Amino acid sequence: MTTWIFRRLIQAIFVVLAMTVIVFIGVNVIGDPVEILISPQADQAERARAVIALGLDRPLWEQYGRFLWNAVQGDLGKSFVFNEPALRLIAQRMPATMELAVTAVLLSIVLGIPLGLYAGLRPNSFAGRSIMAGSIFGFSLPSFWVGLMLIMVFAVQLGWLPSTGRGQTATLFGVQWSFLTRDGLAHMLMPALNLSLGNIALVLRLTRAGARENMPMDYVKFARAKGLSPVRVVFVHVMKNITIPIVTVIGLEFGSTVAFAVVTESVFAWPGMGKLIIDSINVLDRPVIVAYLMMIVFLFITINLLVDLLYTVLDPRVRLESRE
Amino acid sequence: MLKRLAGVGVALLLGTTVAVAQSVTMAMSSSPTSVDPHYHTFAPNETLGIHMYDRLIERDPLNNLIPGLALSWKLIDDSTWELKLRQGVKFHDGSAFTAADVAYTFARVPTVVNSPGSFSIYTKTVVAMETPDPYTVRMKTNGIYPLLPVDLTNVFIIPKNLGPNPATEEFNSGRNAAGTGAFRMVSYKQGERVELERNDAWWGSKPHWQHLTIRMIPNDGARTAALLAGDVQLIEFVPTADATRLRADKRVTLAEIASQRIVYLWLDRSRGGPTPFITGPNGEALTVNPLNDKRVRQALTIAINRPAIVERVMEGAAYAAGQFVAPGTWGHAPGLNPPTSDVARAKALLAEAGYPNGLRITLHGPNDRYVNDGKIIQAIGQMWSRIGVQTTVDAITWPNYIARANKQDFSAYLLAWGFGEATNPLRALVYTFSPAKGWGAVNRGRYSNPEFDGLVDRLMVTADEAQREKLVIEATRIAMEDVALIPLHLQQNIWAMRAGLAFVPRADEDTRVMDLRPAP
Fold it and tell me: B284: which DSSP letter?
């Protein structure tokens, strides 16, 4: 087990290293940050000064070398735009994205699994069919459109919910959270729902497929024949067997939810990391782009590791060592 | 008893309405990068700054200079401007505003650490400063520099109490964020919101609002929705597509004005030989750059039907232009109207220039920078094709586009230029690219005309306003007659607010909540 984890860590380091090369070269071939940042009124001398101030007059390999050297020491560079460490900027925005993503994933679990189970156990009922039909909308409608529609209906027409922003926050562990206040929750409801729609549909469909597949199996028949209550059969025996793919998907989707909260965050003006990265791309704030992508890679590696570990808990047949 | 209760209820109700009415939320279209007023020459920073800080000289809604912290300014000799300062002004930290703060501010501007766009472009012409008494400042320049007052409308004054080298981060945290402005900052959340409170000691006319919240909502749809939902009371940069709909909506009103941002086309003049995106009518390579022929440039400009672009593409939210500034503005050349479109004459001019079968050209433009930029170049492409210039349109995302434009990668391309006064575009856009002088800095087309340059050289050392305006008009005529670039239109600035409010729209695109009041 420990050697396995150790090997995975070595792999992870190489993945991160490869990523830095790709991203660093990638962001350096697009555009000219000085032109974006500087006042249009600046004269030639001021432009030359800005190029030097940002270190862009050095050759690319030198910039990369300096970046790596600093990165090893835990410094991913300073934002061109804000003159603050890129990591700190991202860390400031992370709680907002995390609470949104966690809420979205929770929503997809509490809504997706029961609905999927129902549709799987009663596939021919009207409700079961409606759930399945509805789930098609969940993953096929573009989220920016759904987001704007939610705003139009619930904020503009009905006036029930605030249209955008994060609302009031409260402090916990020195970090600002929206889910601790009523106002914050009201602000979070629409973006979280918008972010989770696709995941709800995914989890729902997986659960349904799993239930449909497992219900006719011998172990279910045997459990029934043994006289177990239907509740026990479904929630203990069937659930155990269909959880594995769901856990995998939820794990990976959590990563994507964090990484791609971008659309929802910009539609709802939610001040999270996604909004930061979009703003940074628009102004070619290279250090922030690189730091953000590195963080996302790190996140995916961690999640994959956790998912693999969870397998062993859920399915005793899985042995990590044997997978090598 | 019941009556009394009802009375209390009404009073409570009134009380709450008053309290609510004195709070206002405004949504900006992009986020300031800092509260430090000297950190970054960036429009959103200026919008935030005007609420907290004042400048020596301010601009009225039509961009005329008006007194700010300075009550008057005049040239006392060829190289000295004397400013008389306003007395009795206090900073938010309680200290009194004097000439020493001006000197402190000017010394601080060039020293801001890691500034991505320094304000020293506005202060560096001042080579020395004297403060003979606390309310007089004398600024020395190298020779006559008539535009110093205009430069001063960009520099926010901070108190000398901040001490040596005040850190940018401490402005964001609020500790250094003291100005003399109409509002004082309460809190700042980068990229999200700024909370401000009215400064009752402000010297200007008292703003209606006790509390001001500025929110950043860059997404156009979300910003409009927030206004319609009543979450914000004022939004800036209303997209033209929404404006049409909002005009009919009873919940909101609009405030509109012609901007000082001209949308125009550059024609490549950097090459004598062939230019990369122009070929003969059948794709054959040319040996010369046809854009160096004035007749070709004239054909291209009169091929464009500007009123049609304004009407259909801009949905009425623009003004067709034949020069840089709008009629009624200082420096406007009378009678220099937008060229009328004339397909027959354009074809004749092309033939005369030796291209009877036309040309093939690729027209470049950004697709995410200016209002309807991608659609404008498409429309122009069709208009050019009508005179036999077969046009391919290529719209590129801004960060890539501008990097290529700076390298003279294109042959014909769209850009826009915002300016405060009429000499600015002459000096920055049309003047020969001259790094040593710092002029022609954004002359990407590399147009160069010694006659024009001579006039600008003269007007830049002419102190007399009337004389200078004459030279501005003369230079403008030369540039336009020679088709240095192809002016298209001036954008319209649009703000939208909840019904029942009135706002003073501004040519300079600044959003000042001080100018938002209940409609009379």
Answer: P
